[in-house]
Specification:
Structural class: mainly alpha
Number of strands: 0
CATH architecture of the largest domain: Orthogonal Bundle
CATH superfamily of the largest domain: lambda repressor-like DNA-binding domains
Largest sheet: none
Order of helices and strands: HHHHHHH
Number of helices: 7
Helix content: 55-70%
Strand content: under 5%
CATH class of the largest domain: Mainly Alpha
Radius of gyration: 17 Å
Distance between the termini: 28 Å
Shape: elongated
Length: about 120
Amino acid sequence: MTPFGERVRALREKRGVSQKQMAKKLAISPAYLSALEHGHRGRPSWKLIQQIISYFNIIWDEAEELERLALLSHPRIVVDTSGLSAAATELVNILNRDIRKITEEQIDKMLTVVKNKN
């Protein structure tokens, strides 16, 4: 699942809307919406993001947050470490190799470190 997919699913469930109902209103297939929610599809288009924001009638900070989550929701990312240190390259390769073995608690700790880098 991606951060964007997780948020869309939460918004949809909070409002008691099925994937089929939402997909019909957005003129997309329920299968595509399901794949988007589960992280089996790439980042949604800007147009679709705006349609979803409009569909849920969300504004300001919540809309900006949904846009931000969409940018962070590509399930298959390539990390270019050329020009970085050997340690940076090692880190990325270890994460790539072991990401499925890392617990949610460990991921939360790493996210805290990375988000507070300043």
